[in-house]
Design brief:
Chain lengths: 183, 176
């Protein structure tokens, strides 16, 4: 070992945890030996101060800091419990009648129309059910997107979802109608 | 393994107290950081020693036995006395400076500030590291003796000592 020992290695050696090569280096390296002796004397000084020098006499005075902290913590816990019981009694769970299937279906239709828009026009898969016969030909084609207008097609949605009609400036902009006009 | 010696070969209780009281008091004060509690623990230790003497259970090595019992008693205090510690630690402590006549020439070389720094660094050590350091450097026990007193392996004692040395150095350098 050519490089000098780190402080950590010297501490390890002092605690009898050093490696043989570190011990061998310490035996031949004067700077490391000096540093090791300094570390030894530092620890001896610590031991001397702890063991031999008189500790300052201590006078205990009644203190309030910790008691105040403990009382504050207890008050916070009590307040937390009281608040949780108060707010808990006010919050009522919505009755199950509010979660009827029709509303859920309508919400799902909205999501579908937003997700599956074509050319910026919202187009729900359910609206495709109302396509005229000309579009039924699409169902027989192999074009990937054409199939989404077919009932029970690529999206696998069946009947009963309901058509989605949008009204802009008093005119019906049903996706199906828009498509018809465009065609 | 504990060996006992014949009753007529034992030191008297008074002699035992005279020989070990100061050392145990110092040890307990360093481990508990409370002089009053240290006195209580040392009294308990000598009570146990008296019982051992009267029941012919005297060990062959009183010094090692007393050290072990004192350390165990300090552990018990740490475990059980949270309420006492809370009550005592909530008290405001005023350190009364020592009179000039109390200190020796060697003490005067080290400034009060340095001594305060050293005591603070020692107080910050975890319990186990403090125990190992005290037994190794102040009680001057060998690694094997420390291991026996603390019921640890020698390797574990060395690792705790290494960490204690590192922490003390770091704290002292950080403070200076």
């Amino acid at each position: 070992m050519k490089r000098c020992l780190t402080d950590r290695a010297l501490s390890r050696l002092l605690a009898e945890l050093g490696k043989p090569e570190e011990r061998a280096h310490l035996a031949v390296c004067a700077p490391c030996t000096t540093r090791y002796r300094r570390l030894e004397s530092e620890m001896a000084e610590v031991a001397y101060v702890l063991a031999a020098t008189p500790w300052p006499r201590v006078r205990r005075m009644p203190g309030t800091g910790r008691w105040i902290a403990a009382a504050a913590a207890l008050a916070a816990v009590v307040a937390g419990i009281w608040l949780s019981t108060e707010t808990g009694s006010r919050i009522q769970v919505a009755p199950s009648s509010h979660r009827d299937p029709q509303r859920v279906a309508a919400a799902m239709a909205d999501i579908n129309s937003a997700l599956f828009s074509v050319d910026g026009e919202p187009r729900g898969p359910a609206a495709a059910l109302e396509l005229d016969a000309t579009h039924e030909a699409d169902c027989e084609t192999t074009t990937p997107l054409a199939g989404i207008y077919c009932a029970g097609g690529a999206l696998g949605l069946g009947e009963g979802t309901g058509a989605l009609d949008l009204e802009v400036n008093g005119q019906s902009t049903s996706p199906a109608e828009g498509r018809d006009e465009g065609a | 393994m504990r060996t006992t010696r014949p009753v007529d070969d034992q030191p008297g209780h008074e002699a035992l107290v005279d020989a070990h009281r100061g050392r145990l008091l110092r040890l307990c004060r360093l481990l508990l950081r409370d002089p009053e509690e240290a006195k209580d623990v040392v009294q308990e230790v000598f009570m146990q020693a008296y019982k051992a003497q009267t029941q012919s259970r005297a060990p062959s090595d009183w010094a090692a036995w007393l050290t072990r019992v004192a350390i165990n008693a300090c552990h018990d205090r740490h475990r059980a006395g949270w309420w006492t510690r809370f009550r005592r630690s909530s008290a405001r402590i005023e350190e009364i400076p020592l009179a000039a006549g109390d200190s020796s020439p060697a003490d005067r070389v080290l400034s009060e500030e340095t001594r305060g720094r050293i005591r603070l660094a020692f107080r910050k050590l975890p319990d186990r590291q403090r125990e190992v350091f005290v037994l190794r450097y102040i009680e001057d026990l060998s690694t094997a003796e420390v291991a026996a007193a603390l019921a640890l392996s020698p390797g574990s004692v060395k690792r705790h000592l290494f960490r204690a040395i590192r922490r003390l150095r770091e704290t002292l350098r950080g403070a200076s």
